Amino acid sequence: MALALLKESGLPIAAPSANKFGHVSPTKAEHVYNDFNKDSEVLIIDGGSCSFGIESTVVKITDSELIIFRKGGISLQNLQ
């Protein structure tokens, strides 16, 4: 679903976890709605439930190294 959204939009999209700072990562659209229901500008695309709720792995890749800024669902071993 995410790839289809990227292709359709034709724009770069930054997509952090769909939760407010300090809140648990959501695994269902309902969790996102409950976290943001007072924000009228939020649109939720429900692609179904996630199998796990863990933050994104954030990395920097250079010519000589791979730096993990935040551990998440993809391990260092999988990245290598």
Task: Outline the structure in words.
The chain has about 80 residues and is of the alpha+beta class. The chain has three helices and two strands, in the order ααββα. It has helices at about 1-10, 30-35, 75-80; strands spanning about 60, 65-70. It has a two-stranded antiparallel sheet. Strand 1 and strand 2 (about 65-70) form a beta hairpin. It starts with a helix and ends with a helix. The mean pLDDT is about 85.
Order of helices and strands: HHEEH
The Cα radius of gyration reads 15 Å
What would you call the shape? globular
The share of residues in helices is 25-40%
The overall strand count is 2
- Could you name the ranges where pLDDT drops below 50 across 5 or more consecutive residues? none
- Taken as a percent bin, the fraction of beta residues is 5-15%
Major β-sheet strand ordering: 1-2
Q: Distance between termini?
A: 26 Å
Mean pLDDT: 83
Put simply, the count of helices is: 3
The main sheet comes to:
2 strands, antiparallel
Structural class category? alpha+beta
